[in-house]
Predict the structure.
Amino acid sequence: MATIVIAGGTGLLGTALIEAFRLDGHRVVVLTRHPKHDHDVRWSPGQDDGSWAGALNGADAVINLAGTSIASGRWTAARKTAIHDSRTQATSALVRAIASASQPPSVFLSASAVGYYGVRGDEPATEATPAGSDFLAEVCRDWEAIATQASNRSRVVLLRSGVVFARQGGALPQLALPFRLFAGGPAGTGRQFVSWIHLHDWVAMTKWALATATIAGPLNVTAPAPVTNEELSREIARALGRPSWLKAPSFALRLVLGEMADALVLGGQRVIPDVARRNGFVFRYPTVESALKEIYG
C-alpha cells in the first residue's frame, strides 16, 4: 500500500483519481481548503506551510491538481491573475514542502495543460515542441518551471492534459448541450484541432506515469487521435442522435467570451502523446468515436 497525497482533489480529475487509488488499496491524503472526509488535510497554499506540509513527509507520491477553473468567467485582468496565481502559488507551496521534507516523495506529478503549446493550427505538437506565447502558454510555462524545481528531490512528471471527456463534469456536457437542443454544430471554421482524452485513460495514464520510473518531465496526457472541431461536432451529434448543422460564428463567440474564445474554442492544438506511445502505454479509448460510444452508450 502506497501513501499518495493529492492537492486539488475535489474536481472531476481528482475525484476519479482518488477513487481509483483507493480501489487499488492505497492510502490517499487530500489537501483541501474545505476538509470533509477522513484523510482530508486543510491547506492554504498562500500561507505558512507548517500546518499541512507534514502530510508530504514520508509519502510515496504527491499529485498536484490545484488551480482555479479557466472557463468559469470572462478573462478580465483580475480573472487572469487568479488563474495564473492559483496555479503558481499552490505549486510553489508544494515544492517548498518537498524541499523541507526529511523523507521527500519519490515522485511529484504536477498538472499542466496542452495550452502550453499555444495556438498552432494543424502543426503536430509533441513533448519536444516549444511553448507558445499566449496567455495560457505563459501560465503553463510558469507553472511547469516551478514544479521542475522539485526535481533535485523527487522525480517530476508534468501532466500536460487535453480536454478530458466524461459524461458528468468537465467540458463534454457543455459541448453536448447545444446538440441535445437540436442547435449544435462546429465553432468558427471548425478546422481547429481539439486534443482530448477519455477520463478512464486520463486516470490510467496518470497511474502509469506514477508507477513507471523512467517517465520524467513533460507528458502529453491526450488520446493519440486529436480531431478537428468539425469532426468532434459530427461525432457528438452521431452519439446523441442529433443533427450537426448550426455553426457558431467566430465573431459571436468572441463577443460572448472575449479573449477566452480564441484560446479555448477557436484556437487549438494538435497534440500527440509521443512519450506515452514510445513507452508502451495502451489506450482503452484511442478514438473519439470509441470514447463517445462508451460515454453515451
